[in-house]
Amino acid sequence: xxxxxxxxxxxGVAERFRSVRQRTMELCKPLTPEDMMVQSCPxxxxxxxxxxxxxxxxxxxILNVFQPGYKLFNxxxxxxxxxxxxxxxxxPEKKLRASFSRPGLDEVLRxxxxxxxxxxxxLEENPEPEVLSRVELGANHEEQHQELLLTDLLHAxxxxxxxxxxxxxxxxxxxxxxxxxxxxxxxxxxxxxxFSGGGFCYDNELPRHRVWLEPYALADRLVTxxxxxxFIADGGYRRSELxxxxxxDAIEQNGWKAPLYWSRDEAGWRIFTLRGEKSLEExxxxxxxxxxxxxxxxxxxxxxxxxxxxxxxxxxxxxxxxAGNLMDSGRLRPAPAEATDGKLSQVWGDCWEWTASAxxxxxxxxxxxGSLGEYNGKFMSGQMVLRGGSCATPQAHxxxxxxxxxxxxxxxxxxxxxxxxx
Length: 422
Known about the structure:
With 422 residues, the protein is α+β, with helices and mostly antiparallel strands. It is 32% helix and 12% strand. Helix 1 packs antiparallel against helix 4, helix 1 runs parallel beside helix 5 and helix 7 packs across helix 8.
């Protein structure tokens, strides 16, 4: 038996749905149809696929379940645009997504409009709470794909010999001198962690539980490009004693000599961004980005420090309002820290911060029922946790308990380094 929901909640979810769907299309405005077909590495997906898959999510988990008599837009789309939900349908191998020249972009855009129209109709019919819950999940899912769309495009444009910019640089005030890295102390003790309060969260943020933390300190800002360049100059990529065994294997197998988007010519290091290629001198005070967990760990060891645990980070961030260099700022690249005044800066945005914590379920963790239970739980093996969001993360998407996760060799995301000690 369905239960009526408040008009205010219904209106709020509908508005969030509309704004998220509109933002995805805004992100695609600078792109050509050819741009939207590129898949330049196994981790990435073409922009056209992101457009279709996010529509697929709403169609598959909401419309086809809760709207009586709903007719699929295309009988092949449920398996064609499935990502990894094995209990839902078979799906093509991920690395083949760039071969999907059909359906064409026009048909994918019609698919999005078709799904939007039917979902708007469903939301107008005073839906049951589970519908609103899934629409909220779908909006958060699409926000994740907005970030992936940008990071995938960055890699695609980097592999293009022309090195085109996604957007041209906009004039901004130049950052002044950067304060020397210092540390902010935290008492630790018996603390509660995990999501609390109302609103949306993912299942991997639950349940809230109690842990003991020893006293610790976190760096007041992220490690900069200039500081990381010192690590490179000191032979950081040639000194096996600084690296975890698997990290050293990754160096030898992949030929790593610097972060992903760094290249060197006679003038020195250059760094590729969504705003085009810049010199290291231009970006020296900005946070180093596109480094793997292995690189973050090796840098911390070289600096005589360590990476924070995810729960140390969460406790430090919990009382800080979500504001910073996130997608909403429009910068779309990491920015230098402002004066810290003895407090943590760059908590939100700029770069996802690698932690020393493996991605595992909290005590009492229970995944969502059905195919949606594959959203987070099945990846709890061989992954490391990142916190805090990046310059490509929507502000409405992030919170202190949010847990991102990637394999430790992953470098194509906006991932950076905050040091810890004690």
